[in-house]
Amino acid sequence: MGFSILGLAWRSLMNRRGSALLTILAVALSVALFLGVDKVRNGARAGFDNTISGTDLIVGAPTGQINLLLYSVFRLGSATAEISWDTYESIDGRDDVAWTIPLSLGDNHRGFRVVGTNESYFEHYRHGGGTQLRVSEGKLFSDIYETVIGADVAKELDYSIGSEIVLTHGLGAGGLTDHEDKPFIVTGILAQTGTPVDRSIHVPLEGITAIHVGWESGTRSPFADTISEDMIRGFDLTPKSVTAVFVGLEQRGSLLRTQRALNTQGGEPLLAIIPGVALGELWQVTGIVERALIAVSVFVIAVGLVSVLTSILTSLNERRREMAILRATGARPGHIFFLMVAEAAMLGLCGAVVGVFLVQLGLLIAGPILSSAYGISIGGLGISAIDGWTVLAVFGAATLIGTIPAVMALRRSLADGLTVKL
Amino acid sequence: MTTPPVIDLIDLRFAWQDGPALLDIPGFRLEAGERVFLRGPSGSGKSTLLGLIAGVLEPQSGKVEVLGHDMTALSGPKRDALRADRLGVIFQMFNLVPYLSLVQNVTLPCRFSSARRQAAGGEGRLNEEAVRLLSRLGLDGERMLSRPVTELSVGQQQRVAVARALIGGPDLIIADEPTSALDADARDRFIELLNEEAGRSGAALLFVSHDASLASHFDRSVDLAEINRAKGGV
């Protein structure tokens, strides 16, 4: 039978193309939801995994390890406490430590986080499996009132070399707490990395200290305006504290020993975390939500498949005569069965394939937004094995479901014989 | 060698489920190439009898021989194959599959039977054969053939059904009240055409109708009430 019956099934579907298209759309949307959830999940994971590499330990004031990871690396949330400069220096001075990157967080500029740091950041910070940060325009900062901005900051705020930036105290939207008396000058713009670095504004640690002169109480002191830039330059601008420290070790073999030493040292209490371990813990937490989302989207696919069943079942009554004609002209029960199953399978297959393309279309349109707003890299989210398996599974399930109307049509056509009393 | 009768019914008994016997026919024959008119009022079991002959229904007892095959001894698929290979069926109305073109409707039996496909000239010449049959029945021209079948008049639809019954030269054509939806004029022309084409292809014709006035068109006329002893029919 083969192709001649498939041809019949196709023509029969086209004859009811309105309802067939709706059914295909229902399946397509359900498949798109499932694949979309999966792709965003993978994209988010890949994005996070790519954000930091080469850093052996992250050290901060005691808090949850996920919290420390989120605010230090992903610039999400905020620190509740800081560690003193003396403690930072003692970490930097350890024999087993090769390099450190001090980070001072807590200010922002029009929604972009400000990171106080030093040259070590640009030398040692690695992302995407070992890539160093690269200045695409200009140069690194060399003065306390200079800044190097991420690619997205430059793009979205339309900044170029020489632009002046006023930082805002805290993480609010700006306004009353602007450090407008102390603008920074953009000296460099970093190349795109696909990480939160793109959305960060990097200034020297001393710059952070400088803009907070006169703000020691947390708000602007009435005397702040009386302090001139020259006076500030005359102060000792060594920071009193930093928010977090990225640490690179001499030998990775000493990782656990160094971590334990930092966590249990006398003096100021510290939390040292291994980024990969903290990420693993983060995925455990999000895994529950992911599984729930996947489960929901699998159910939605089931609903899509039920719509295949509905559309064929509702057509059965009006097709009794058609079945009788087919029987009379020589169709065996197997032909009728195959015809109905083929219709269901075609609806399922078309729906699944359209769904795969909907997701790709969606990524094409929404990808840049996801990537800039959430740092979800959509590179490598093209058509993959999971798409193929999903299409195959939906096709198989639709075929299986098709046996229900097939058996019904079969029974009816056997009972009706050649004449249908309508 | 003598050709076996196209239809040979012996002591045929049939009832729907637990109902009274609808058909009880001691004997009925249709010889090869014969064109017979079978008359019976509606509800007398005509359609059921055709279902038995076509092999989609099975009798409770007795024998239905079609083209030398004992239908009661054949398996379901074998009966289906016999029907696909050697029978043509025309219904009262709604004979056509709405989503197929005229030509596709005519070649429909060839989708299910390779013997029928071969007899109609083989894969490559099916459409040609369908067009030829349609034009013999007065349906020709690009415009006519490209029309959706649902737009055809009832008379035109019935002629397409005749072309479908004739394709691949079957040995028996069964027609179940094919003219009841036609007016008198169209009816006579339709029967002449059917007779002529059946005669040309050498097929036997079993024409069933309640309308006794049609009997004059056929070689022989049989009243179902004469051959059926059962009184179960309504």
UniProtKB/TrEMBL annotation, chain A:
Residues 21-208 form the MacB-like periplasmic core domain. Pfam families: FtsX, MacB_PCD. It is a multi-pass membrane protein. The lineage of its organism: Bacteria, Pseudomonadati, Pseudomonadota, Alphaproteobacteria, Hyphomonadales. The chain crosses the membrane at residues 292-316, 336-369, 389-410. Keywords: Cell membrane, Membrane, Transmembrane, Transmembrane helix. The keyword Ribosomal protein does not apply. Residues 295-412 form the ABC3 transporter permease C-terminal domain. InterPro entries: ABC-4/HrtB_transporter (IPR051125), ABC3_permease_C (IPR003838), MacB_PCD (IPR025857). It is found in: Cell membrane. This is ABC transporter permease. It comes from Henriciella marina.
Automatic annotation (TrEMBL), chain B:
Keywords: ATP-binding, Nucleotide-binding, Transport. Residues 7-234 form the ABC transporter domain. CDD domains: ABC_MJ0796_LolCDE_FtsE. SUPFAM superfamilies: P-loop containing nucleoside triphosphate hydrolases (SSF52540). InterPro entries: AAA+_ATPase, ABC_transporter-like_ATP-bd, ABC_transporter-like_CS, ABC_transpr_LolD-like, MacB-like_ATP-bd, P-loop_NTPase. GO terms for molecular function: ATP binding. Signal peptide: none annotated. The keyword Nucleotide-binding applies. PROSITE patterns: ABC_TRANSPORTER_1, ABC_TRANSPORTER_2. This is ABC transporter ATP-binding protein.
